């Protein structure tokens, strides 16, 4: 049971249409120009990006020549291998406790929901979890997070709307210290990466974490919406400049979007995908698995 | 920068190659089309739309007239521009109003597209136009969504109709009844974010549509959406027959290819865009302006409109009169600063000036300086504001102390004021070229 088997349940016409097209393509037999064109279309419409698609296609053609491949079924296997390799070059983190995970990202990608799911995940693993509601900007963000905290049955530290987010994190850090907590999850306000002052605020929050919990392992994850296109590269790049991004949480993979842009990000910036969000339930967060992800792009069971 | 440079820059590169050579060969155009194709794909324009677009443009560009014209490069730019405009729907389309109030506006879209935030903006916009809007809170799924709408409603002074976590279809219908009773002429229905492939939730939207007979069904789409934008827009349109699209988060550095795709796939116009986090950050969508913005030709019209919105007509007339009479005082200077702050992020403003792409100005530093100048002027007596020449050393010290600044900063403000006044005098006496030079110098100072 991988995460895509879960998704399959919710799948409707659109995705089936793509799968049908793909299956037809790969059972067609001969390698023609049309075949390559359609392969390119699949990669580009998965948001992999024109440049990365070119790179992948070049590599694929090289492999085909080298191995004297003639049939489309083998090409499928080769393509899969290339894509998986691209993702696996980036290692997954191993956690040590106390652990701080800070989620940041642009507006509306699903940070707060992801925090709720992470809280449940660590709680289930027997950890003592604290949430810092450092999104003090968006209307009712703390209320939303409180509901998640109740669902996961974990502690939450919050201030009033408009408060200094760094102060919320400071208080949360004190609470973790005094209670000997294992995990601190920091929710931050959505911010567009080209707003300089908001990126400075993020740096400040990050400094507070490092100063107050010097012995903790700190992971900065950026949350990306799978429906986002090439702009995701710019998002990761600029957040990375501000606070050193350690990984990606890819959300909303339960739609028809493939989130292929993480392939471009893996290739260009070397940031690994750590978790994927596949639904609105509290358990709908899975560890990332490169092979299953690629299967999703190629629409395989 | 390669991958990250904007579509405008990319097309600019392609065409500067062409324009620098007088004549174009068919091979040149092919090369340009290839680069346009990649640029559009990197801008997240849908694959099929790009294919269509490029073949249309190259058909026109290869035409005899272009190849033989003296400025083939510019001809190609014009063709690309015209096609872009056509693709996005030629003219701006306004909101429809129902002949039988209340006008119901149904908002829908994926999770996190910005529906609730945009409800606030749209409400504020309609309020400004003299309408009497009300919100209906029909997102009963996301935790605290109703709460968020209430906070948003409070900010823009619009009441929210809510019935807790009940049945959204009933809540929407009740809201319309309530609006009729209380005399509200517009009901903006906020709904839960949903995946287009979620049949159950799509049925719910259809039922809301049936019960409330909305005049407008607006699909909210994140401007950063990738290739999937067409699937989302197409499904929502097939299911609900939407009347228009809202493009949000256009204040990011996204190239906004979704705007190009959606219209061509659904045939429905983009009506508004969201350009910031403030309730006033809403702009009508103008296809021609968007096209020239993409092509790096600036967006002067929007800039002028922004300035007009920030300064009231009355203020404008007063200022004009004072300028003519050469009576521009520090008080007027203060008013100018206030309206500058109202225009929004300085980077967005700069990006609209032709020939200037989004300059990476540190907007916070500028805001800080403007705030300082404001507090300096506010620390002056009315007499000082109207007769700045009386401000000598001891007054400067007092003003600096009173505003928490230094004498140097007070001096800097007074100097800037002098220059502005001089500029206005020059404008009055018709010495415009000199004034332009001054503007250039001032702009440098702001960097």
Radius of gyration of chain B: 26 Å
Q: Main beta sheet of chain B: strand number and arrangement?
A: 8 strands, mixed
If strands are numbered along the chain, what order do they take across the biggest sheet of chain A? 3-2-4-1-5-6-7-8
Query: Mean of residue pLDDT of chain B?
Result: 81
Task: Indicate the topology.
The complex is a heterodimer of chains A (301) and B (447).
Chain A: H1 3-10, H2 13-26, H3 33-45, H4 50-66, H5 72-88, E1 99-104, H6 111-124, E2 129-134, H7 141-152, E3 155-157, H8 165-179, E4 183-188, H9 196-212, E5 217-225, H10 231-243, E6 247-251, H11 261-269, E7 273-277, E8 285-287, H12 290-297
Parallel strand pairs in A: 1-4, 1-5, 2-3, 2-4, 5-6, 6-7
Antiparallel strand pairs in A: 7-8
Helix pairs in contact in A: 3-4, 4-5, 5-12, 6-7, 8-9, 10-11
Chain B: H1 7-19, H2 26-42, H3 47-61, H4 64-68, H5 72-88, E1 103-109, H6 115-128, E2 133-138, H7 145-156, E3 160-161, H8 168-182, E4 186-191, H9 199-212, E5 216-222, H10 229-240, E6 244-248, H11 257-266, E7 270-274, E8 282-284, H12 287-294, H13 300-310, H14 313-324, H15 330-342, H16 346-351, H17 363-378, H18 382-386, H19 393-403, H20 407-428, H21 432-446
